[in-house]
Amino acid sequence: MSRLTGAGEQRRAEVIDEHGDTVPLPVTPPAGDSQEPIDHRQPLYVTRAGTGSRPPFTPIIKKVALGLAVCLVIGGGYAGLRRIADAPADPKAPGAHPQATSATPDQAQDGVRRAVAGEAVLQKMTDAVENDNRTEFLDTIDPKASAFRTSARTIFSNLSTLPLGTFQLRYVSDDTGALTPNRTAELGGTQSWLAQVEVSWQLSGYDVKPARETLPVTFVTRDGTTYAASFSERFAAGQRRPIWALGPVDVAKGKHSLVVSLDSEAEAKSYVAVADKAVESVSKVWGKNWRQKVIIYLPAKQDQMEGILGAAPNTYTQIAAVTMAELDTPAVGAPVRIVANPKLFEELGKQGRRIVLTHETTHVASTATASPVPLWLAEGFADYVAFTAVPVQDESAAKELFKAVRAGKVPTALPTPESFAASATELPQAYEAAWLACRLIAEREGQAKLVKFYLAVHTSKSTTGLADAFKSVLGMTEAEFVAEWQKYLERLAGA
Ligand SMILES: [Zn+2]
Q: Region Disordered: start and end of each range (predicted)?
């Protein structure tokens, strides 16, 4: 397994384990092992000069473009998030106060007092954001927390920059034991505590439902006034961070896209055209019956990407882009974002970026984060759309599969879900096989039939949705299709 084949693509929450762990990936490549820019005559391959130990024509770009175009839905990261996800969304609804199940009456009373004080701070913050009043916002920040005051200025400025439709903060629960004695002494005041706060925010013109995350907020009461003293203390494993809390953001708007960059305004602007083009390419195949909007996040650093995804350090060093629903539970209409890996995206080159963004945008259009379609169809279709928009020679795009077919190893079945897993050894072949299955349908029956086939499976409520679609749309069984597809692969590979 070469170092770039270890990534997988997972689309649904059920593939995320109970602790919200995401895709496990191989280790970071050694420093200085950089990749050369894309070769446009053979756009899916790069030659790496000077690496010595590696063979030329390592198919880095293809694997980045295909195998590493990961999309997944992050599940609730820890028990608190589960609770929050199950709790009512209305901040005024019952359940916003901590439940003092095993606490003594005094402790319960203290808990309620803390919740009331904390909620009052959050309400002031929300009002300040709504009224675009920076002074009022900064009045809620602990005057002694100088570093956090600097972050709070950035956060306020970010929230003013983003096209916010709604913004809410909801006090969910507190944990009096979370702060160490040293930290409590450092904070001073009459009391200090850590609370989990649900933040929900909607991007006007893009989101049909608000994005939702949970932030640990540190509160301190001094001289009778309660303040917020941190938004980032004791993050739990898997806990995601909103992009606007990670550094100054620049926003660029296109006809169909919103690009939010932690890098620079120029960077944000440069992606707008690529994203708009991706939306148009997807609509050409999928039709215009979707929102035709994408939101791209461009982190400047790897750890920012990890923060957005709630991932452990170095989890995504090999991943070009991730499509995620910014919600703790998967749902149709969830706000979906494409998160780019800053380093790999840069290395992909212009054409590679277009392929990856078109692939990911296909998932956005077809609501793949909440769909019953099998992975081979979701991935094959996304690649079909991407390669229709950016044509690539078969010999390059299906290199690994052709090699296998020429060696007599013609696939006996459509790729299984496991073959798209992070650890799958034949991940490139799975993508290539899925892509050519979709292309065969389009060549045999026309592109419109391919879309119809996809939709029939996508909208089916039956467990036999796929078999039904083979029969009703293509007039054949899956076995008959596989036999035809095997011949097609042999013909293409010249085997
Ligand atoms: Zn994909």
A: 1-39, 89-111
Question: What's the gap in Å between 449 CA and the centre of ligand 1?
Answer: 21
Q: Residues 377-428: pLDDT tens digits? A: 999 999 999 999 999 999 999 999 999 999 999 999 999 999 987 567 788 8
Q: Which amino acid type is present at position 360?
A: E
User: Which pLDDT belongs to residue 491?
Assistant: 97
**Per-domain residue ranges for the chain?**
13-76+248-493, 79-236
| Residue corresponding to tokens 């990670």 | 246
Q: What is the pTM of this model?
A: 0.77
Q: Which token pair is 90?
A: 């209305």
CA nearest neighbour of 23 among 96, 83, 72, 93: 72
Chain segment 448-463, per-residue pLDDT in tens: 999 999 999 999 999 9
Ligand 1 midpoint to CA 363 (Å): 7
Homologous superfamily (CATH) of 79-236 is NTF2-like; domain 1 (3.10.450.100)
CA of 323 to the centre of ligand 1 (A): 8
Q: Three-class SS of residue 64?
A: helix
Secondary-structure percent of the chain, ordered helix, strand, coil, rounded to 5: 45, 15, 40
What is the CATH T-level fold of the domain 13-76+248-493, as seen in this structure? Neutral Protease; domain 2 (1.10.390)
Q: Please tell me the distance between residue 333's alpha carbon and the centre of ligand 1 in angstroms.
A: 18
* Amino acid making up residue 7: A
Task: Give the lowest-confidence range in 62-71, 165-174, 336-345.
Answer: 62-71
Q: How far apart are CA 494 and CA 395, in angstroms?
A: 11
Q: How close is the Cα of 381 to the center of ligand 1, in Å?
A: 9
Mention every residue, 6+ apart, whose C-beta is less than 8 A from residue 227.
121, 140, 141, 142, 143, 145, 219, 220, 221
Q: For residues 48 and 54, what is the distance between their CA atoms, to the nearest angstrom?
A: 8
d(CA 495, CA 490): 5
Query: How many residues would you count in the chain?
Result: 495
* Banded pLDDT at 436 (limits 50, 70, 90): very high
